Batch of 4 targets.
Target 1
Amino acid sequence: EKIRIEILSFCLTDSRIASDETIQQLFVECRLNNAVVEETPLSLPKRTVGQRIHYNYSSVIYVDKANNQARREYLKAMLLKPDLHTESLQFTMVTDPMEYEQDLECEDIGLACVDLRDILQKQRDIIEEDIDVFDLQDDSTVIGKLKVTVEALHVLRAVYEECRDD
């Protein structure tokens, strides 16, 4: 009755983000249905192009009937109405200003998505896969690769069976 997420690492590609000196630290937010459900507890220093930032962060999003009915209903709606165009699970790369840069604020710079419907259709979880992170200022530009694990197949099957029983 849960979705397990691991945010393993991030690797910059040659983009405006890599050359932007004001971007020093990065962390990752994970959203389900536009609600932030998790974020990496640490922001880590930006590395050079091709080097990985290792978060090694693991978390669980509970979607049980008893305590998380709203999330479960969202999963049902997403599975029943594929035309909704809802991005299932969103990973946002966020800049975190250094402590001495109090005048700057955190800024969303990139977005990566995992479509939970794909996990159900392909009948396989995403295990340590690199997903593209797209620039929020130019969604045709990939700014990096985020290595993630999303284990959701078991709960998606259960929710899908509930949909068929209703």
Note: The mean pLDDT is 90.
Target 2
Amino acid sequence: FIQMLRSAKKRDVLQLLRRAPEEMLPFVVEAAVAAQSVASLAALSDFLDFSKEPKSLLEKFFYAAAFSPRPSGELLHLVLDKLDGKQLAPEVQETGTVAIGSLVGKLCQQKLCGLQQEVERGVETILRGLRDAKDESEVVIYLLALGNAVLPETIPTLLDHAEEGPAAVTTAAISALQRFPTQHISSKVKRAMRRIFHEKRKSYEKTCRLAAAEILLDKEPLPMDVINILLAANELETETATFLLLKVQSSLR
């Protein structure tokens, strides 16, 4: 079906979308995203009316885009255009934002970061949304998007939120940092993770401290960090201490 869509003209894909039975429409939308031809994306652009379509169909569109294994710049352009300046239901906006991060990350993996204007626009959309976010839940969504993008230049932003944010924000920022390859976990990142785990600046929830310890133990651990984490484990409850001990044993193996 996808192969057929790749060779179809825009008017034919659009007619297919308009005539598809309601229960088949999500499947056709997903297939049109997967086809990623100029015609199929143009047809989707014309067909998807964000002021009328049910939330479930719009979310299906964003999920299909986010999980596309080798997305094109044109697909990111379509997602950005459909989100730009629209008043959308919160869950649709959230899914779209996370999809932008996923598309940016995959395009950069294809070495298209500096070659696609849409990538720069996508990154700026996420960073601007993060700056303007008022609610904690909004901040978390934009941090998830940054985690999907895995761009080294966003590490300072993630560190700020990891150390200074409330629990949910700290957890999301550290989770995003965990996704970076070891070469990007610098001494500065490790110093921040030590401050969080050992609670040097303020108290952190257990999940935040454990996530910080995981980065220290998973990304080329230093003997000093292993020793200090084991010593600190003596002060923690049994379940948490056991988790850390297993992490250390796994690293040793």
Note: Residues 90-109 form the longest helix (20 residues).
Target 3
Amino acid sequence: TTVIEYVKPSDLKKDMNETFKEKFPHIKLTLSKIRSLKREMRIVGEDCGLQPVTIAMAFVYFEKLVLQGRLNKQIRKLVSAACILLAAKISSDLKKQEVKHLIDKLEERFRISRRELISFEFIILVALEMALYLPESKVLPHYRRLVQQQQV
């Protein structure tokens, strides 16, 4: 038999964040904060009835921006909300009322202003170099994970 030593969750989280920081020194957020933002994105997406593929696209946009080092503590919520909004607009044929509902949910969940979100949407679009249509290979891993989480 093997004995696995017990590690406090807080210590595990700290080690994970330190390892992430060593691997990606240019990223200004911790791994746990990035995961937390993605969890919030998923919750809003599911609340608004977005398909898992749409949420997966938002995750890809978000991760691209994270890897570019464009996120910091001050704008992290705006960026994640704008990613969901862009993904919803590009992959779904949302009616005007559905877009309004999504913006209301994003505003409520991320505690951001509608005006900032709308203006930030274009900034994110430019940062992503207008490349909103993604290859299947980039979206599929996120999609699979989301579908598995829904089944549990």
Note: The first helix runs from residue 9 to 23.
Target 4
Amino acid sequence: APGPRSYTTLRDEAVKLFNSLQQLESQRDPVPLIQGILQTCLDLPPLVDEIYCQLVKQTTEPPAPGGPGDLHYWQLLTCMSCTFLPSPPILRFLRFHLDRRTESRFPASEMAKYACFIREALGKTRGRECVPSLEEILVLMRRQEMICTVHCPGAAACSVAISSHTTAEEVAQELVSRLGLSQSPNLFALYEQTRLREQPVGSSTLLADVLTRFE
């Protein structure tokens, strides 16, 4: 379909993604390539299961378990798990891969830590409007949270730690508590402000999507 990015057939795009995965293994800075793969999956949803299957294959019996190339695949799998849910059959197979093939066989390894993070993320992911920002990808690669700065009227800016699943309502509630306004009869919301407009952020909106739009 017409859009900002031109695509060919799903089969051709799947081959291109496989080639990108091969490049990922040797990339010194994998972040832009990871974001490009995620964007293709967002634009072409039928390829989500394809990438999950390819990543399961790449992380099964790798030549150098826990090596830099292997961990790049786990980092992409981490970003995928925070952005897309695979179909139920693929999800069942993925959970088997995480539990039996990874955590059980390589306990306390970096691979097992990624597997645990991914398993927990899959229980929270509901789909994204935008792919993760470059900053979000960096923190996901380290299995950490992002720091979001919210400017409050009449008060200093507040820093809030958020994950890929944190909603605007959750952040607003935390700030209301921090500012001692829990007993206030007023309603509170987050606003997204640019040079051109200011608009409220929907309570169920993922804050990570808002940050990606700013990026």
Note: The chain has two domains: 10-141, 146-214.
